[in-house]
Amino acid sequence: MRITAKADYAVRAAAHLAAAEPGVWVKADAIAAAQRVPNAFLLTILAVLRDGGIVESRRGLEGGYRLAHAPKDLVVADIIRAIDGPLASISGKFVEEMEYDGAATHLRETWVALRAAIRGVLEQVTLEALVSGDMPEHVQDLLADKENWTTRPPGLRA
């Protein structure tokens, strides 16, 4: 799975807002500076998150951005979907819509299982957990396995 820069920046911005005092409006330039995100790009991302119901915005000197929901009620998957759409898709189609023939007949089942595995993490990690580091137990188990910290090179599995 590839995470786009836009999705990465969006999750980082949402985490920054989750760490802010509840109800406080945070300026986009403060988020951009703290997260080392280009301000113009961040403004576009925040607009998408606003349209997706993830953040609220207010203009003026006392304005800025804040989460539209409590950090415990927003999961990383919410942010990624608002930015990039479905967590797993193939050429713009939902994985369950794919049809394959011959030797690849059961490939769709692999894609559906992959989506379920992705959901198993991204739909369970709340912004509150992301900010505090208090991850769900099954995510902690994944993180405890040293193999999961190693990127495998392209090619055959050893």
Question: Care to describe what's here?
Answer:
By secondary structure, the protein is mostly helical. It starts with a helix and ends in a 14-residue tail after the last helix. The model has no long low-confidence stretch (mean pLDDT 94). The chain has a domain at 5-85 and 124-149: Winged helix-like DNA-binding domain superfamily/Winged helix DNA-binding domain (Arc Repressor Mutant, subunit A), CATH 1.10.10. A hairpin with a 2-residue loop joins β3 (89-90) and β4 (93-94). The chain contains 7 helices and 4 strands. Helix content is 47%, strand content 8%. The strands form 2 sheets. The protein has a two-stranded antiparallel ribbon. It has a two-stranded antiparallel sheet with strand order 3-4.
What is the rounded Rg?
A: 18 Å
What is CATH's topology name of the domain at 5-85 and 124-149?
A: Arc Repressor Mutant, subunit A
CATH level-4 homologous superfamily of the domain at 5-85 and 124-149: Winged helix-like DNA-binding domain superfamily/Winged helix DNA-binding domain
β-strand percent reads: 5-15%
Summarize the helix and strand pattern as letters: HHHEEHEEHHH
Q: What would you call the shape?
A: globular
Q: What CATH first level of the domain at 5-85 and 124-149 would be assigned?
A: Mainly Alpha
Helix content: 40-55%
Which strands sit side by side, in order, in the main sheet? 1-2
